[in-house]
Structures are given as structure tokens and as C-alpha cells.
Fold this protein.
Amino acid sequence: MTDAEIYDALNDIARDVFDNDAIALGPETRAPDVPGWDSQGNIMLIVAVEQHFGVRFRPAEFEALKNVSDFVTLISTKLAG
């Protein structure tokens, strides 16, 4: 799966989780940039991403992420592994 495909899927997932069709996640997007992406929204997003991609994240992995680009890299690594 390419990074572009992961971004597309993440955007669809985020739009669904946060009920906002205007969300457009880019490489530098951070949680505070997205309305509703608070601690509860974070958990909902993680679960939805895990289910969609069939991967599991350890809390330390997710806590180390600084932006969506880091998240895409992590997902890509999990899919390749």
C-alpha cells in the first residue's frame, strides 16, 4: 500500500470518526488542528485505524507520533512487517 493510499484511507476514517467531511489530513497535520481530535477522539481514531488496516499499535508507538506523516510511516511499517 502506498503512502497516498494510506492518506486517503486516513482521511476517510477521520471524516467518519469526527463526523466532519471537511477534514483534509496532510503530512504536517496534528491533533490540535482537527476539531474533535481530543483524547477521546484519539482513542476512537486509533481503534478505527487498527480495524481498517488490520494492525495493532502499542501505546508508546502512538504517543511518539508528532503529526500525520509520522502516523502514515507507522502504519506503513506495520503493514510491511
User: Anything to note?
Assistant: The radius of gyration is 11 Å. Residues 3-80 form a domain with the Non-ribosomal Peptide Synthetase Peptidyl Carrier Protein; Chain A fold (CATH 1.10.1200.10). DSSP finds four helices and no strands in the chain. The mean pLDDT is 96.
